From TrEMBL, chain A:
It comes from Caldinitratiruptor microaerophilus. It is an enzyme of class 2 (transferase). A motif (PRPP-binding) lies at residues 104-116. Regulates transcriptional attenuation of the pyrimidine nucleotide (pyr) operon by binding in a uridine-dependent manner to specific sites on pyr mRNA. This disrupts an antiterminator hairpin in the RNA and favors formation of a downstream transcription terminator, leading to a reduced expression of downstream genes. This is Bifunctional protein PyrR. The keyword Transcription regulation applies. The gene is pyrR.
Automatic annotation (TrEMBL), chain B:
The lineage of its organism: Bacteria, Bacillati, Bacillota, Clostridia, Eubacteriales. Belongs to the aspartate/ornithine carbamoyltransferase superfamily. ATCase family. Catalyzes the condensation of carbamoyl phosphate and aspartate to form carbamoyl aspartate and inorganic phosphate, the committed step in the de novo pyrimidine nucleotide biosynthesis pathway. InterPro entries: Asp/Orn_carbamoyltranf_P-bd, Asp/Orn_carbamoylTrfase, Asp/Orn_carbamoylTrfase_sf, Asp_carbamoyltransf, Asp_carbamoyltransf_Asp/Orn-bd. The keyword Zinc-finger does not apply. It comes from Caldinitratiruptor microaerophilus. This is Aspartate carbamoyltransferase.
Length: 183, 310
């Protein structure tokens, strides 16, 4: 995600708000799945990956159990490749556990049109047949173009299409925060 | 970021950054080959034509699998049974394929420059899968890919290319590629199989195999095409094996962790002994897998639709 040079229109979440949202989502994941049995988290590159790792750390704190975590690159599954002005760099998918029979929680930073989540579902199903797939996002900004809904949401933010939601995470951007920009 | 070109014709005109991009993309593609479901939908709806005027089972299958793993439709034209035999020109054949919807033509031809000729005239992309004794860029790239994986780098290595340099498009692509990374390239072979003027490229040329192997990090053993032997370019296969064959004893002059490459198919007991070919030093089968990954990367980066910066 390109960072606009303009000032943000709003500061939607600070580091504490992100931490509290992830803590709540970790609890919700454990509650819905009744523990960690057969549970695995898969982060969607790029910012879904540190979020998945943080959720796994929270789950370990709460439950004392390790949950496997994987990384999904969905570049090769996008349906808009030929519409893009730049050909995206393919990164590696690393899911170091069998997907078959697992309860998988896909993790991403922002849920918007739903196309990324759709591509991630395709990518995941090519690796095996999970028992179920759930979706966790830090921010849901609406404007779905596909029938996709998140199971766990850090914050719902009604936005206009002329706005941009940018999630910054320490692991990637050097700070934690969610900002709203005018396009 | 994509390759800002529609064709891949040789390593000579690729920049180091472009080669890095292809090799990095191939690393990601390599993972797909190990999956239970070896297929991603990336190039769905794209049409790739294999136009091979020379037989090449390995390269053709490698391109075909690469295209299929990316969900492209791939059509192989068997030139021997095609209208080429009825006198159709190369350009007419390719134009016909293009208007049938081909997005990319992969071409092997016995004449150097044939893919360049097509590339200038077609809207579709052209990938050179070997032209005459000129270049074989995807083989060069897969050799670089294998070296980078095993050695962790491409710079500052001593690489010896041994055998029939004269007829080898692989050798040329390797030389262009390796020199861009600042590796020290040595070529060694019988005088009849070394073309003149190689030194001008910046490689070391020698008729002394031991000099080329001394301290080498990588030995790329070229295939002897036995039909050349009929032309009298070397006295006998037995003599070739004795003077130029890569044996465990010969490898003693190289670094202990020397990497042995061979583009295949091998003449065991001629240019390479089975002892070497089957040892942990050789990466000959890894080259084959890497070849599919590199070709997937090339197809992905070239078939960028509107994204090639045209």
């Amino acid at each position: 995600m390109e960072s606009p040079t303009r000032k943000p229109k709003a500061h939607l979440m600070d580091a504490d708000a992100i931490a509290r949202a992830l803590y709540r989502i970790a609890h919700e994941i454990l509650e819905r799945n009744k523990g960690t049995e057969r549970l695995a988290l898969v982060g969607i590159r790029r910012r879904g990956v540190p979020l998945a790792r943080r959720l796994v750390a929270r789950i370990r704190e709460i439950e004392g159990q390790d949950v496997p975590v994987g990384v999904l690159d969905i570049t090769l599954y996008r349906d808009d490749l030929t519409e893009r002005s730049e050909w995206p760099q393919v990164e590696r998918t690393e899911v170091p556990f069998p997907v078959r029979g697992r309860r998988i929680v896909l993790v991403d930073d922002v849920l918007y049109t739903g196309r990324t989540a759709r591509a991630a579902l395709d990518a995941l199903l090519d690796l095996g047949r999970p028992e179920s797939v759930q979706l966790a996002v830090l921010v849901d900004r609406g404007h779905r173009e596909l029938p996709i809904r998140a199971d766990y949401v850090g914050k719902n933010v009604p936005t206009s299409r002329r706005e941009l939601v940018e999630v910054r995470l320490t692991e990637v951007d050097g700070e934690d925060g969610v900002y709203l920009f005018e396009l | 970021m994509g390759l800002r070109r529609k064709d891949l014709l040789g390593l000579q005109d690729l920049t180091r950054e472009e080669i890095d991009l292809i090799l990095d993309t191939a690393e990601s593609m390599r993972e797909i080959i190990d999956r239970p479901v070896k297929k991603v939908p990336t190039l769905r709806g794209k049409v790739i034509v294999n136009l091979f005027y020379e037989p090449s089972t390995r390269t053709r299958n490698s391109f075909e699998l690469a295209a299929k793993y990316l969900s492209a439709d791939v059509q192989s034209v068997a030139v021997a049974q095609s209208s080429v035999q009825k006198g159709e020109t190369l350009l007419d054949t390719a134009r016909n394929l293009e208007v049938m919807g081909a997005d990319l033509v992969i071409m092997r031809h016995s004449e150097g420059g044939a893919p360049h000729f097509l590339a200038r005239r077609l809207r579709a992309g052209v990938v050179n899968a070997g032209d005459g004794i000129h270049e074989h860029p995807t083989q060069g790239l897969l050799d670089l890919f294998t070296i980078r994986r095993r050695k962790g780098r491409l710079s500052g290595l001593k690489v010896a290319i041994v055998g029939d340099i004269l007829h080898s498009r692989v050798a040329r692509s390797n030389i262009w590629g390796l020199l861009k990374y600042g590796s020290e390239v040595w070529v060694a072979g019988p005088a009849t199989l070394l073309p003149p003027g190689l030194e001008a490229l910046g490689v070391h040329v020698t008729h002394d195999l031991d000099e080329a192997l001394d301290g080498a990090d990588v030995v790329n053993v070229l295939r002897i095409q036995l039909e050349r032997q009929q032309k009298g370019l070397f006295p006998s296969v037995h003599e070739y094996a004795r003077f130029w064959g890569i044996t465990p004893q010969r490898l003693a002059a190289c670094k202990e962790d020397v990497l042995v490459l061979h583009p295949g198919p091998m003449n065991r007991g001629v240019e390479i002994t089975s002892e070497v070919a089957d040892s942990h030093r050789a990466a000959i089968l890894e080259q084959v897998t890497g070849g599919v990954a590199v070709r997937m990367a090339v197809l992905y980066l070239l078939l960028g639709g509107g994204g090639t910066g045209e």
